[in-house]
Design goal:
The chain is built from 16 helices and 7 strands. With 434 residues, it is α+β, with helices and mostly antiparallel strands. The chain has 4 domains: 2-81 and 160-193, no CATH class; 90-152, no CATH class; 201-253; 264-422, Neurolysin, domain 3 (Orthogonal Bundle). The strands form 2 sheets. A 5-stranded mixed β-sheet has the order 3-4-5-7-6. Strands 1-2 form a two-stranded antiparallel ribbon. Helix 1 runs antiparallel to helix 4 (58-88), helix 2 (16-31) crosses helix 3 and helix 6 (128-137) packs across helix 11. The radius of gyration is 25 Å and the shape is globular. The N and C termini lie far apart (55 Å). The protein binds zinc ion (ZN). Zinc ion is lined by residues 375, 379, 403, 406.
C-alpha cells in the first residue's frame, strides 16, 4: 500500500488550487495574526505543503512525486528485510547448551521451540527480548557469537534480503528530492522543524558526547577483561555476559535477582497508578469483549478522569512478540483527541515484544525493559493528555520533543512509591527488604 498512499499524498500537496488558498490564508495571517492555536495550524499546514514541493514547477513536481513514491517502497522493503531476518534466524539449543540460563527463560525458550515444531529443543529468536537475556547469561561463548551475529546482521547477510543497496539508494533519492527544493542535503531539510534545527547543531552535540562515551566503554571493557583473564579477548558478544559478572563482582548486584521483582502485570499496575497520581486517569479493564481487538493477546482498559468521571479513551496493550509483528517497543494512536468536529476520545496503544511466558508463569522483565515499558507509556499519556481543537495540533509538536515527557516518566519506575508497592517478588509478593 505504501506507494499508493505516497501517490495519494502527493496529489494533495501538489494540488495547485488548494495550495493557493492555503497560501492566501497564510499570507493574510502575516498581516493579521489569528488566535494562537489557529495560527499554529495555519503555520504547520503551510510549512508542510512547502516542505513537500507545493511551490515546485510542474515538471519538478512530477519528479518529486516519483521520488517520494519510490522512497516509500524502499522504506517498506527495508523493514520487510529486517523482519525477514528476525523471523528466519532462530537459534535452536539442545539440553546440553543451556549453561547459565535462568529457569524462566529456558521454559519460554522451550515453549517457543515447541510452537515452531522443534519439540525438545530451545529457541533463541532473533529479537532483542530474546537475545538480551541469552547474551547476558549463556556460558556458551560460540553460541553467544552466533546469536549476537544473527541479530546485528539483520539486513546485512549478502542475500536477497540484504539492505546495503537499499540504504545507498535511499540516501541518493533523499538528496535528489531535497535538492529539488533548494536544500543542499537531506539533514538540512529534515532537521528544520526538529529541536536541533540544523545538521551542525546535531553533529556538535554528538561530538561533545562521543569521546566521553568511548572513554567509558574502554573503562567498562577493561573491567570485563580483568575478570575474563588472558584466555580470551573481550568481543562484542561477550559484553553483556561479562558486564553481568562485573556487576556481581563490583556491586554485588544480580540482574536475575532484580528481575524477580519486575513482573509485567505489576509494572502495568504501577504505570496506571502513576497516571492516576499525576494526571487523574483511572484505568478499568474491559473484559466483556465489547471492544474488538486484532489479536487475543491484546488487552484493553477504559481510561476515565477520576474527578469528572469523563471518558478519556481506551488503552490497548499488546505485550508479546509473535510472527509478523514489528520488533521493538512503541506507542501509537488509532485515534487522537480533537473537539473540532465533536469531541473524540483517544484510542492509544502500547506495543512491545516480550517473550510470552510459559503457561502459569509470571512474565519477568529486565530493568532496561521495565524502563522502556514506562517510557512508551509516557507517550500514551501524552496522547491521553491532549487537549486540542484541531487534529493537526496533535502532531504539531516538534517531533523529537515528545521524548522529553517519556524520559521524565521513566524516572517514576525508580521512585519509592513504585518500588515499595509494585516491585514485589514474584513468589512471595513482598517488596525487597531495605
Ligand atoms: Zn520514545
Amino acid at each position: 500500500m505504501a506507494p499508493l498512499i505516497s501517490e495519494f499524498r502527493s496529489t494533495i500537496t501538489q494540488n495547485e488550487k488548494l495550495f493557493q488558498r492555503i497560501k492566501t490564508v497564510y499570507q493574510a495571517t502575516k498581516k493579521t495574526p489569528l488566535e494562537a492555536d489557529k495560527q499554529r495550524v495555519v503555520d504547520l499546514v503551510y510549512k508542510s505543503f512547502e516542505m513537500n514541493g507545493a511551490e515546485l514547477s510542474p515538471e519538478n513536481k512530477e519528479q518529486y512525486a516519483a521520488i517520494a513514491k519510490e522512497l516509500s517502497s524502499l522504506y517498506t522493503d527495508f523493514s520487510n528485510n529486517v523482519l525477514h531476518d528476525e523471523e528466519n534466524y532462530i537459534t535452536y539449543l539442545s539440553d546440553q547448551q543451556l549453561g547459565g540460563l535462568p529457569e524462566g527463560f529456558v521454559k519460554s525458550a522451550a515453549a517457543i521451540a515447541q510452537a515452531n515444531g522443534h519439540e525438545g529443543e530451545y529457541a533463541i529468536t532473533n529479537t532483542r527480548s530474546s537475545i538480551d537475556p541469552f547474551l547476558t547469561y549463556s556460558t556458551e561463548r560460540e553460541l553467544r557469537k552466533q546469536v549476537w551475529t544473527n541479530f546485528y546482521s539483520r539486513g546485512d547477510n549478502g542475500d536477497e534480503f540484504d539492505n546495503n543497496k537499499l540504504i545507498a539508494e535511499i540516501l541518493r533519492l533523499r538528496r535528489e528530492k531535497v535538492e529539488l527544493l533548494g536544500y543542499s542535503n537531506y539533514a538540512e531539510w529534515r532537521l528544520q522543524d526538529r529541536m536541533a534545527k540544523t545538521p551542525e547543531n546535531a553533529i556538535n552535540l554528538m561530538e561533545a558526547v562521543w569521546p566521553a562515551a568511548l572513554a567509558r566503554v574502554a573503562e567498562e571493557v577493561a573491567d570485563m577483561q580483568a575478570l575474563a583473564g588472558n584466555e580470551i579477548t573481550i568481543e562484542p558478544w561477550d559484553y553483556r555476559f561479562y558486564a553481568e559478572l562485573v556487576r556481581k563482582d563490583k556491586y554485588d548486584l544480580d540482574s536475575d535477582e532484580v528481575k524477580q521483582y519486575l513482573q509485567l502485570d505489576k509494572l502495568t499496575e504501577a504505570m496506571q497508578y502513576v497516571a492516576g497520581r499525576l494526571f487523574d486517569f483511572e484505568f478499568t479493564p474491559v473484559t466483556d469483549g465489547s471492544v474488538p481487538v486484532f489479536h487475543e493477546d491484546v488487552k484493553v482498559w477504559e481510561v476515565t478522569n477520576k474527578n469528572t468521571r469523563e471518558n478519556v479513551g481506551l488503552w490497548y496493550l499488546d505485550p508479546y512478540a509473535r510472527s509478523g509483528k514489528r520488533s521493538g517497543a512503541w506507542a501509537t494512536t488509532y485515534r487522537s483527541h480533537t473537539t473540532f468536529d465533536g469531541k473524540k476520545n483517544v484510542l492509544a496503544s502500547n506495543n512491545s515484544n516480550f517473550v510470552k511466558p510459559a503457561e502459569g508463569e509470571a512474565l519477568l522483565v529486565s530493568w532496561d525493559d521495565a524502563t522502556t515499558f514506562f517510557h512508551e507509556f509516557g507517550h500514551a499519556l501524552h496522547f491521553f493528555s491532549s487537549n486540542v481543537k484541531y487534529p493537526t495540533l496533535n502532531s504539531g509538536w516538534w517531533r523529537d520533543y515528545t521524548e522529553f515527557q517519556s524520559q521524565l516518566l521513566e524516572r517514576w519506575l525508580a521512585t519509592d512509591e513504585v518500588i515499595s508497592n509494585f516491585l514485589v517478588h514474584n513468589e512471595d509478593g513482598r517488596p525487597h527488604a531495605g
